[in-house]
Amino acid sequence: MSMLSDTLAHTAFAGVAVGLFLNSALSLLLSPLLTAFVVAVVTALLVELLVEHAGAYTDTSLAMVLTGGFAVGSILITATDGGISVGIDAYLFGSLATVSTANVGILVLMSLIVGGLVTLTYRPLLYVTFDATAAQAARLNVRLYKRLMVVLTALVVVSAMQIMGVILVAAMLVVPVAAATQLAGSFKQSILLAIIAAEFAAIAGVTLSYVYGIAAGGSIVVAAIAVYVVALGARRLPHRHLILGRPRSLRPGRSRDGLEVDGGERE
Known about the structure:
Protein name: Zinc ABC transporter permease
Number of strands: 0
GO cellular component, one term: ATP-binding cassette (ABC) transporter complex
Helix content: over 70%
Radius of gyration: 20 Å
GO biological process, one term: transmembrane transport
Keywords: Membrane, Transmembrane, Transmembrane helix
Number of helices: 12
Number of domains: 2
Membrane topology: Multi-pass membrane protein
C-alpha cells in the first residue's frame, strides 16, 4: 500500500500539472486540485487493472506508473507559461499558506465521503483485504471492493497533497498505521489508534510549523515517526494488554499478527 500511495501521489502531481497547463494554454479557471483528483482516480483504476492481470502489486509496474506520472508532470510544468514559478512547489513540498477556504471545504467533503464509504463497506473491505479467495467464495464482488479501496486511497492522497506535498504524503498513509499495529489487539483498535496517531501528528506538526516557521509536511511526518517510536517502546510494556487487550493467537478469522480479521466482536 505504501508503494501504491506513493505512485498515486506522483501521478496526482501530473494531474496538478494538467490543470495548470490547461489554465495557461486555454485561459481556463480549472482547479489544479480537481484535475489531480481525476488523474489520480483514473490512475488508481488503471493500476488495479494491471494488478488483475499481473496478480499482485508488482514493484516494476508501480515504479513505471510512478516515474511516468512524474515525468509527464514535469514536462507539462515546463511547457506552462511561467514554468516552475506557477507555484508547483506548494504541491511538491506542501504549504499551509496556499490552502484556501475552498480547499478546506474539499478536505472536509473528501473526509465525509471516504469515512462514510469505509463505514458502510467495512466488513466486505476487511474480508477482501485479508482473504480475497475466501471473499470470492463467499460471493463477494472482490474486484468491486478492490477498486473501491484504490479509489478511496487516491482521494485521500490528493486531499492531503497540498498540505503534505507529493513527496511526503505517502508517509501519512503508512506511519500512523504502523504505529497503531504495534499496540492494537484487533483490527478495529488498529483503525482507531491509527486515526488518533495521525491526528496527533498533524496537530503537533502544524504547531511546530507555526512556532518555528518550518515546513508543515515535514513537521507532521517527523511527529508521526516520533509517535511510531513511542509505540515501539510502549509495545514492550508488560501490562499494556490491560488497556488495549491481549492479541490472541492465530486461528481462523485472525491475521498472523493477532489482529482480528472478521470485523471484531459479533454484534
